[in-house]
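A quick word before the example. In earlier lectures we treated sequence and structure as two separate objects. From today on, think of them as two lines of the same record. Here is HAD-superfamily hydrolase, subfamily IA, variant 3 written that way.
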Amino acid sequence: MDMRPVFLFDLDGTLVDSVYQHVLAWQEALDIEGIPLSVWRIHRKIGMSGGLFTHQLLRETKVEISPERIDRLRRLHAEAYRHHAAKIKPLPGARELLDTLTREQIPWAIATSGRMETAAKNLEALGVDPSKSPVVTRDDVKYAKPDPDLFLAAAARLDTPTTASIVVGDSIWDILAARRCQALGVGVLSGGYGADELERAGAYRVYEDPADILLHLDELGGRR
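And the structure line, produced from the sequence above:
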């Protein structure tokens, strides 16, 4: 019996260096809508679902968040993000990690809270073709992180249960979603969250970035 794990990866801050581009894009969108929010507060929300993002906005700013405003914010963010897309690069070791898993016949998929309108540029930078590799985006599920739907859908694409999966993510929202679908959570520091935060959320191991995971792949059951 093949007992090698299945890897389910977040995208932003996990495989591509794009978290701060998202932060700046959201800041531009919020500024246009006249919603004051500090950059550090925006960073803390990257990776969560749009619904949770909206609820936290309401709590922290006390402004009216109508469905029309939510839609405008999403469109403004996507437009602003496209302006930053040229600067987005894969994180160190990301391509090599995916290539190694493929070569070793260890299944992997990508599950991102972003919609394809923003994820497409990240996937292109990473060299991943969503028509050839399993990619699940916010467009494909009803709820995003910290709900487990994205990872459940990604595991289904690989025809494997999440209980046999390793979820790799940079935010507490990834790790919480992993716990909710009984997957093993592994954190990376490349999105800006600290090791202590990721461990408190339930991360089994925390690595610096994809290159560090590749160096320690044997610790996660990935034979090389």
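Notice the following. Residues 11 and 112 are 6 Å apart (CA to CA). We will return to this example when we discuss secondary structure assignment.
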